[in-house]
């Protein structure tokens, strides 16, 4: 996870280290659904929408009231804010965390493959709240045809297998 580019979101789990200040270091923070974390002494701090590096700077700035030259590092321990769904005729339908780049083919494998009557040639990916619908033909892709269909899954995508 790149501390300069990853953007923290709700439900992510963060670790915050204040070097030389064990009492201020908290091993695990859950970012609440409103995007906020509660930090001892400081209180409420908005985490969502910031990179770990930016959040560390914000916390360090507020800790200056209590500590001289605080050195704060924020780590993303678990990603839960980036999710996608797979519904329909797969063995394990549901919501999945999008932790690393994942293709549609990989996502379908993660869902345990297809049920007996699944239409493997007519899979749909709903993107941007359904504004964009992509088609995926599993049979073609595994035969090395039309590989451009095997796009990267994006947060909030819904993959439907009928």
Task: List key phrases describing it.
single chain; 162 residues; alpha+beta; wza like fold; Outer membrane lipoprotein wza fold like; 2 domains; 5-stranded mixed beta sheet; 3-stranded antiparallel beta sheet; 3 helices; 10 strands; 15% helix; elongated
What's the arrangement of secondary structure elements?
Layout: E1 13-18, E2 26-30, E3 36-39, E4 43-46, H1 52-63, E5 72-78, E6 83-88, E7 94-97, H2 104-110, E8 123-127, E9 132-136, H3 138-142, E10 158-161
Say which CATH homologous superfamily of the largest domain is assigned: Outer membrane lipoprotein wza domain like
CATH class of the largest domain: Alpha Beta
CATH topology of the largest domain: Outer membrane lipoprotein wza fold like
What would the average pLDDT be, to the nearest integer? 94
Word description of this protein:
With 162 residues, the protein is an alpha+beta fold. The protein folds into 2 domains: 13-78, wza like fold, CATH 3.30.1950.10; 83-161, Outer membrane lipoprotein wza fold like, CATH 3.10.560.10. Helix content is 15%, strand content 31%. It has helices at residues 52-63, 104-110, 138-142, and strands at 13-18, 26-30, 36-39, 43-46, 72-78, 83-88, 94-97, 123-127, 132-136, 158-161. The chain is elongated. It starts with 12 loop residues before the first strand and ends with a strand. The model has no long low-confidence stretch (mean pLDDT 94).
Describe what is shown at a glance.
This protein is an alpha+beta fold. Helix content is 15%, strand content 31%.
């Amino acid at each position: 996870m790149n501390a300069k580019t990853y953007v923290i979101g709700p439900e992510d789990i963060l670790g915050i280290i204040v070097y030389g200040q064990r009492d201020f270091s908290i091993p695990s923070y859950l970012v609440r659904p409103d995007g906020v974390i509660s930090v001892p002494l400081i209180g409420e701090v908005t985490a969502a929408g910031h990179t770990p590096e930016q959040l560390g700077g914000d916390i360090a700035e507020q800790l200056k009231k209590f500590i001289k030259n605080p050195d704060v590092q924020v780590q993303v321990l678990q990603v839960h804010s980036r999710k996608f769904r797979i519904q329909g005729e797969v063995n394990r339908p549901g919501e999945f965390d999008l932790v690393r780049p994942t293709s549609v083919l990989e996502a379908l494998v993660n869902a345990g493959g297809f049920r007996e009557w699944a239409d493997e040639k007519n899979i749909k990916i709903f993107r941007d709240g359904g504004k964009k619908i992509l088609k995926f033909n599993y049979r073609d892709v595994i035969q090395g045809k039309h590989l451009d269909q095997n796009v990267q899954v994006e947060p909030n995508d819904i993959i439907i297998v009928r």
